[in-house]
Structures are given as C-alpha cells and as structure tokens.
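Hello Y.,

Per our agreement to keep a running log of every chain we model this quarter, I'm adding this entry. I've kept the format consistent with earlier entries: sequence first, then predicted structure.
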Amino acid sequence: MNNQDTNQGGQQSGQYPVRPSDGASLPVDTVPEEIKYFNWGAFLLTFFWAIAHRLWVWVIIYLFIPCGQLIISLILGFKGNEYVWKGKTREFASIEEFNQVQKIWTKWGIIILIISVILTFIAIIASIIIAIIFNIKTNTSCFF
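Predicted structure for the entry above:
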C-alpha cells in the first residue's frame, strides 16, 4: 500500500476502515460481534456516556423527553456500542481498546449506583429518625 491509498487517520481511502493495532479491515456498516453486548455504562450513565461518545441526538432526546429517559437508557444499553462504532463519533484503535473504555464506564456506573443506593438508604433512615424525634405525624388522608 502506498501513501496515496491512506488518509491521515490511517484509513484506506475506500469504504473499509483499518484498525491500526490488529490490521483488520471491516466494512463501514459492519459491527464486530465482540462489541455486541449490553453496555451497563451506557445504561447507568446514559447522559454522560452519550456526551463522551458524541451522540448528540440522544443527548437532546434525553434532555427534552423526561418520561423517556428509561427507554433511552435501555436503547443505548442495548444498541449504544453499535451506534458509536458505526457512527465513528469516537475513534478507537481496536476492538480491545473499545471494550476497555466501555469496562471503565461500566465500573463507574456501578460505583455511582451503589453510592446512590447507600445515600438513599441513609436519607430514608434519617427521615424516620427525625420524624420520631420531633414526633411528626404524617397526614395520609389526602391519599384516600
């Protein structure tokens, strides 16, 4: 291959991008089987994950359709890897690098989820303790 056949990004000038580390050529529309998995990082940190991967349409939808946030999280959890890979919104040198980045997102998503659950539990316990200390009666008549 001569210099004329390769652009500055290390890709051939045709429709097949070359991943430098493994040298494999894949058609632009091809998504490797190794990245077709549920992405917990995309599901748990949807908004931030979409920004980091430059999926701007999903960020806008996430912001302006509040009732659809769970659905968007599920969509990006199931299909987010494919959107990033096909859309070339971020360049990855290899499938391995892509998977390593997604593992980091998953790790932080789980850490933040655990911290959120712990803080929620603490807030509930604190609310009960405060209600007991100050003898606060709850008015549930509006619910019945």
